[in-house]
Amino acid sequence: MTPSDRNPHASGDAGATEASILRLEHGDLYVCQDGPRDAPALLLLHGSATSSRSWDALVPLLTTSHRVIRVDLPGHGRSPEPVGRGYETSEQARRLGAALDRLCVEHVVVVGHSSGGYAATALAERRPDLVTALVLINTGPKMDAFIAPESFAIDPAQWPPTDERIRQFASTGFRAGYQVPQELVDELRGMTFHAVTTAMQASIAYLKQQKLPDRLRALGKPLQVIFGDQDRRWRPSSAADYREVPGAKIELLPGAGHTPILEEPLRTAALVLAFTEIHTTRAPKAT
Predict the structure, then answer these.
(1) Per-residue pLDDT tens over the stretch 87-145
(2) What's the pTM value of the predicted model, to 2 decimals?
(3) Contact (Cβ atoms closer than 8 angstroms) between residue 34 and residue 17
(4) Rounded to whole angstroms, what are the CA distances from 183 to 50, 62, 257?
(5) What is the C-alpha R_g of the chain?
(6) What angle do CA 158, 118, 256 make, to 5 degrees?
(7) How far apart are the C-alpha atoms of 59 and 179, rounded to whole Å?
């Protein structure tokens, strides 16, 4: 990271929030770091049509014991749109690996929410030396588990959509009756039509190529799966599909929908921390 890349939100202790644009060979990425820099690294990857801000409620609960790294995936949040094939899940993994190398991260536990779980898995496939364990939160295991209704026809001629249309689209991302945060509405409106649709198509293509439990079984990495039992996008019972992965730890969150990182941050963080306490690799102390 060069000095021109750095844009700290705060200064002082080593755990201060620091936001940066990493200038990478295959496209720039926005990265945000919190927590002690010598603590075990935890990478948080958001789902489609949102950004690293979706983790805001969870981060303060994780930084007491982790160096928490968040990334805006290409075309999302504050990361620019990629050129060419940059939305493909394998390409996202390559870029994530390059970003972690730039940040001098040698080992990391990766937590992916929704389609962020596909980028997390692809990173582990590409860089098994780097990823020590995986946590997938409401990540669909295969396409026939998808249950969301076709209630939001995206019309490029009417982009960006109104708040009402965005809330209609995002509503199944939460348990029934949950108010979609305005920050998420604004986030989606700030994306281009191409970014929204191409990123979603890339996730679908990755899942159709091979169902996720098969990929994870081949990896042999420690795995935790967290699923809200009120998910309205992926059939909650499909969490059991991950039992095909030897040793997988599966947790259902009663009363939570598709996005427990916002709906139930305390319960979600407790599960993540219990898992990472066992499976993190601590950075060596400086001498």
Answers:
(1) 999 999 999 999 999 999 999 999 999 999 999 999 999 999 999 999 999 999 999 99
(2) 0.92
(3) yes
(4) 9, 22, 18
(5) 18
(6) 80
(7) 21
